[in-house]
Amino acid sequence: MEQHQRVTVDSVDWHQLIRFPAILSSVAAAMRGSRLLVGLVTMLVVVTGGRVWDAFAPARLSAFGLTAGPMSDMMLESSQHTVRGVLIPLVTSQAWPSHISPETVTANQGMDILTAAMRSGHSDLNAEEYSRAMAILDAARPRGTYESLHDQVALTTSELLQHVFALQFADVTESAWTLLVRIPESCWHASRLFTAVFGLFSLVVIGSGAGIIARLAAFDLAGGPQPSLQSACRFVQLRRRHFLFAPLTPALVALLLWILAAAPALLMRVPGLDILAALWVALAIPIALLACIVIGVLTLGAPLLAPSIACDNCDGTEAVQRSGSYLIARPVHALCYAIAGLLTFALGMLLVEFSLSWAFNSVISLNGWIGNPEIAQVAGTMEPLHPMQSVFAFVPGFTANLSATILLVWKSAMAMVIAGYAFALLWTISTRIYILLRNAADGEPMDEIARDD
Asked: Would you list the domain boundaries of the chain?
């Protein structure tokens, strides 16, 4: 008698699918001192590199954001007219520097001139009028490419987190699209040289930092002794080329495919060859489609590249293959893990930003109540899930002004700590998602982590 055996081709393992606690615990794991230190140093290096670029490159972007594009000559002339209109009635001739002409004064120079006039007593503005005038000058000030990029990323990330807590999924998708597509595209249109140079610089720095954190986080679910920060740095140092070329490999393949797809456009200009170009279009369409698929897989699998190298000690090409194959083999798992990771990231950021903002605002409020309220006004406040805003306030006296400057330094340091934690949390979550996805796709145990050579 013939016996029939049921064969399951594929199925969803719900026990593997619902592993949110393993991802949720990343909030506490990212707070470990070694990961916070790596995240903070990485962000400091990236920020320093961007500010150095802006110090030498001309500023031509408007205050409306990176997506608004560069300021035209007419906008620059209008900005200079606004600066003159603010400064000339407020600053006396004695306070005007002899080496700066009122006809060519810039917004940055105008802010320095107005502040110097207040300190020397050559301006009759009160604190509120000074703050309002400085805000107008700041709005007319052209921004550097990195400054615009930094502000746009901070604003969009804050909006993304707010949409997550409001459960506005359409707006979450819109903010994610802005972060992944619109901002890089706007940055490319604003300055191709900056995008290429700073992009490569950021890739090296972020790749190294992500690799170290991923190596530290790889042993969270495996159990056993945790690697030291020194051993994680040594692991990444020996494989720095893999961390660099892993995201570049699919990008170069996609670029090559786009070049092949664009070849008919060049041949269309040559008489006789335009017929061949028209025939080539039939082949160019699937090539362009393949390039879009490669870019899509790269975008979705990019957070898994560093964990792949850190967990399995593979090279850049194998990391791309592993990340892509896991996403294709277990799309439902990947989607559920991604949603859990996004919620975990939002929860961790809310917890850290609320705690640090509450601590900073409490100290500043106490200083304003007991100490000098003018100094407290300069420091301003920190709002959770909102980018740090510039505060323009004048404090008379050398020591009071120095105290206010020190408070602003501490405020910036708090913002850098938040950014460092965000970096550590992102790659801790990505590493755990990779281990869970690998286990769901290949059945590889979660404690199977490549050891040091």
From this structure: 12-57+191-260+301-453, 76-139
